[in-house]
């Protein structure tokens, strides 16, 4: 069985999650090709395609939707696993329990999604771009109305990355084959 994983990740949390998935799939002797969205070319000979992205203000990373639209024909010829990495899992799903980011994808691609999930990520304020720092600061202060100790706590490095969770989820991918 051959898999390709194409991931978009700003601060490497999605990259970490897909590396754990790759590691687990390889323990089943599956062949796994890992590609960063920025340099990816969809492989002709994989049956399963895992598309993974970090979530920013409810959206996929820059370039993710465009990549899928530009490669719609080949992507929609695969069985697709769609993954999001985020801090709040519930907010990523709509009322029908679909990932909200699905709305931006072409119908032919949506129809080929066989599995979708949100995996936990991490937030390290210190490593963020200036734009992301401003955006997070605004969110905590003006939308969540945090201040004092509560604000300080949210700005501390926080990780929810969890290899155990990711390996448990990987079993669902294995069961598809
Ligand atoms: C500016 C900004 C906006 C974010 N928006 C969301 C969001 O809407 N929902 C969420 O659950 N997490 C949100 N996050 C947290 C990211 O999804 C989390 O840091 C994730 O690990 C990023 O993955 P990546 O490093 O692979 O890009 C946001 C983070 C930043 C910096």
Structural description of this entry:
This protein is α/β, with parallel strands linked by helices and 177 residues long. The protein folds into 2 domains: 2-121 and 160-176, 3-Layer(aba) Sandwich (Rossmann fold), CATH 3.40.50; 123-157, no CATH class. Helices cover 37% and strands 23% of the residues. The chain has 7 helices and 7 strands; from the N terminus they run E-H-E-E-H-H-E-H-E-E-H-H-E-H. The strands form 2 sheets. Strands 2-1-3-4-5 form a 5-stranded parallel sheet, with helices on one face. Helix 1 links the parallel strand 1 and strand 2. Helix 1 (13-26) packs across helix 7 (163-176). It is globular, with a radius of gyration of 17 Å. The termini are close together. The structure holds flavin mononucleotide.
Q: Can I get a quick summary?
A:
The protein has helices at residues 13-26, 64-70, 72-75, 107-110, 130-143, 148-155, 163-176, and strands at 2-8, 31-36, 48-54, 79-86, 113-120, 122-123, 158-159. The protein has 177 residues and is α/β, with parallel strands linked by helices. Flavin mononucleotide is lined by residues 9-14, 54-58, 61, 85-88, 91, 121-123, 128, 132, 135-136.
- Tell me about the biggest sheet? 5 strands, parallel
CATH secondary-structure class of the largest domain: Alpha Beta
Helical content class:
25-40%
What letter string, H or E per element, gives the SSE order?
Answer: EHEEHHEHEEHHEH
Query: Helix count, per DSSP?
Result: 7
The total number of structural domains is 2
The side-by-side strand order for the widest beta sheet comes to: 2-1-3-4-5
């Amino acid at each position: 069985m051959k898999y390709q994983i194409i991931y978009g990740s700003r601060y490497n949390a999605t990259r970490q999650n897909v590396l754990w998935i790759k590691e687990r799939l390889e323990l089943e002797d599956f062949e796994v090709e890992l590609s960063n969205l920025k340099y990816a070319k969809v492989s002709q000979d994989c049956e399963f395609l895992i598309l993974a992205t970090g979530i920013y203000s409810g959206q996929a990373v820059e370039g993710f939707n465009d990549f899928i639209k530009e490669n719609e024909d080949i992507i929609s010829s695969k069985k697709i696993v769609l993954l999001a990495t985020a801090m709040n899992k519930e907010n990523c799903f709509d009322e029908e329990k679909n990932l909200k980011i699905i709305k931006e994808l072409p119908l032919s691609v949506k129809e080929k999604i066989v599995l979708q999930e949100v995996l936990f990520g991490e937030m390290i304020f210190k490593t963020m771009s200036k734009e992301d720092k401003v955006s997070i600061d605004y969110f905590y202060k003006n939308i969540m109305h945090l201040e004092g100790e509560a604000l300080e706590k949210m700005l501390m490095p926080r990780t929810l990355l969890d290899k155990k969770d990711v390996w448990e989820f990987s079993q669902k991918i294995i069961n598809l084959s």
